[in-house]
């Protein structure tokens, strides 16, 4: 509000100066001498205005330099965040692979334990039965052996390896 009032006063004074000078000094030669008195003041104010303009340009240049520095820091921070996210993604991928391997191992362990229990049960039954029953138990043990090999093949396929890598073509 004060700035507006000051600007209004300066503009009104500037507009009224020729009329007031004409009232005070009716002779044009006297008005010319009055104008010459203000010549030094005009040079002073022009110099001050130019100095203010130079300071304003310098100040803006400093602020632009600071903004460029801030932008460079932000770019560096974003680059570091990208690298960290990439490393985190790789670590997460490694953890997933480890959990999948652990799940496959647990599944295989459970299947093998089940087969072993069945084999032990067959051994107990075979000791209690005759020779004909033993052949039947042997056939069942062979079937379990084939099931275990199939389980092994499925686990290898799940792991991304093929039977040809084992030499079982």
Write the layout of secondary structure elements.
Blueprint: H1 2-24, H2 28-37, H3 39-128, H4 131-158
Helix pairs in contact: 3-4
Protein model, in words:
It is a single chain. The protein has 169 residues and is mostly helical. The protein has a domain at 101-160. The chain is 89% helix and 0% strand. The protein has 4 helices and no strands. The radius of gyration is 49 Å and the shape is rod-shaped. The model is unreliable at 161-169 (pLDDT under 50).
**Oligomeric assembly:** single chain
- Which structural class should the secondary elements be placed in? mainly alpha
Percent strand equals under 5%
Low-confidence stretches: 161-169
List keywords for this structure.
169 residues; mainly alpha; 4 helices; rod-shaped
Summarize the structure.
By secondary structure, the chain is mainly α. 89% of the residues lie in helices and 0% in strands.
